[in-house]
């Protein structure tokens, strides 16, 4: 067998979600789900993952959609990142997510990669995770015996780890209505300007309240074992008038929210400094150029 050849496995293509769940229930720890394959195939090629059974869910068209509901926006787990990037509904209602989707790999990767796969893979550098965290998204999962709804902030448990059971599919992402007078932004830094895994990324949304009680949500990627909310930085700003000065002060608190590592892409110290800059810039953009000023979702 060639060094980079895949280890043999059995391959299944279920016709619907129930069949996929039956296969998962049968094989459990020995099976892996594949959709776009942009994360799984490299892991299998490098022998980091060697499943006996691969369950291809690409025919499950019931998991590929973007819908507006009375509660917000629902996105099927099989929805391609390119679809999210170009969706008029996402661009209008959740532009910070559309921004992030444009930053994922190449257009070829976005044409096959799915939002559910990106979240289930649980990379700390997943570009779509910070925007969904600041929007307080929830993921829905399903097995033969139960359905769950999990805040995304509780879904990630470690590097490449989630609360998703080995008999469950991630089926749906729900983004709650975003209120009026809300602005947001997403930025990332990599070794090149495009087609890179982020060294650090940040997303923010700011809802301005006429009573003076503002709502601030900040999230970061690639600076901790999981994508994270910068809760100490958020709390500092929510207790103060938001000005360029308080934004600058808040960005210095990012140190206490992040716990980056040193790897081949950057040192921990560099990631900390870049995180401060990214948080400052996304907050300034959110304040000065509201993206949803005409009414939100």
Please give a structural write-up.
- Helix content is 32%, strand content 23%.
- The protein contains 12 helices and 14 strands.
- β4 and β5 form a beta hairpin.
- The protein has 3 domains: 10-56, Uridine Diphospho-n-acetylenolpyruvylglucosamine Reductase, domain 2 (2-Layer Sandwich), CATH 3.30.43.10; 61-176, Uridine Diphospho-n-acetylenolpyruvylglucosamine Reductase, domain 3; 182-288, 2-Layer Sandwich (Enolase-like, domain 1).
- It has a 5-stranded antiparallel beta sheet. It has a 4-stranded antiparallel beta sheet with strand order 11-12-13-14, sandwiched between helices. A 3-stranded parallel beta sheet has the order 1-3-2, covered by helices on one side.
- The protein starts with 9 loop residues before the first strand and ends in a 9-residue tail after the last helix.
- Mean pLDDT is 90; it is low at 293-297.
- The chain has 297 residues and is of the alpha+beta class.
Summarize the structure.
It contains 12 helices and 14 strands. The protein has helices at residues 17-27, 40-45, 81-86, 88-93, 95-101, 107-112, 115-121, 129-134, 152-155, 231-238, 244-251, 268-288; strands at residues 10-12, 31-34, 53-56, 66-68, 72-76, 138-142, 147-151, 156-158, 161-162, 169-176, 182-189, 200-207, 215-221, 228-229. A hairpin with a 7-residue loop joins strand 12 and strand 13.
Total count of strands: 14
Within the CATH hierarchy, at the fold level, what is the topology of the largest domain?
Answer: Uridine Diphospho-n-acetylenolpyruvylglucosamine Reductase, domain 3
- The tally of helices reads 12
What portion of residues is helical?
Answer: 25-40%
Largest sheet: 5 strands, antiparallel
Question: What's the shape?
Answer: globular
Q: What's the structural domain tally?
A: 3
Supply the helix-strand structural class. alpha+beta
Architecture of the largest domain, according to CATH? 2-Layer Sandwich
The ordered string of helix (H) and strand (E) elements is EHEHEEEHHHHHHEEHEEEEEEEHHH
Instruction: Please give the CATH class of the largest domain.
Output: Alpha Beta
């Amino acid at each position: 067998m060639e060094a980079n050849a895949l280890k043999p496995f059995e391959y299944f293509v279920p016709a619907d979600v129930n069949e996929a769940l039956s296969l998962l229930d049968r094989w459990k720890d020995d099976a892996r789900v594949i959709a776009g394959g942009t994360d799984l195939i490299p892991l299998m090629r490098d022998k980091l993952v060697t499943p006996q059974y691969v369950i291809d869910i690409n025919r499950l068209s019931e998991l590929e959609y973007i819908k507006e509901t009375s509660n917000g926006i629902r996105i099927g787990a099989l929805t391609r990142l390119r679809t999210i990037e170009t969706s008029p509904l996402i661009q209008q209602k959740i532009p910070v997510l559309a921004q992030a989707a444009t930053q994922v790999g190449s257009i070829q990767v976005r044409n096959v990669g799915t939002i559910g796969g990106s979240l289930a893979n649980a990379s700390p550098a997943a570009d779509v995770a910070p925007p969904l965290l600041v929007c307080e998204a929830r993921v829905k999962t399903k097995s033969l015996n139960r359905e769950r709804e999990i805040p995304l902030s509780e879904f990630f448990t470690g590097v490449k780890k989630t609360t998703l059971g080995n008999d469950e599919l991630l089926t749906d992402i729900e983004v709650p209505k975003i209120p009026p007078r809300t602005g947001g932004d997403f930025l990332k830094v990599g070794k090149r300007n495009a087609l890179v895994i982020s060294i650090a990324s940040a997303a923010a949304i700011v809802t301005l309240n006429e009573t003076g009680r503002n709502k601030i949500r900040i999230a970061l990627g690639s600076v901790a074992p999981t994508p994270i909310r910068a809760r100490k930085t958020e709390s500092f700003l929510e207790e103060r008038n938001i000005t360029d000065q308080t934004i600058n002060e808040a960005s210095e608190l990012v140190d206490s929210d992040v716990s980056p590592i040193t790897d081949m892409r950057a040192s921990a110290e560099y990631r900390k400094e870049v995180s401060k800059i990214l948080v400052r810039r996304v907050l300034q953009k959110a304040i000065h150029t509201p993206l949803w000023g005409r009414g939100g979702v």
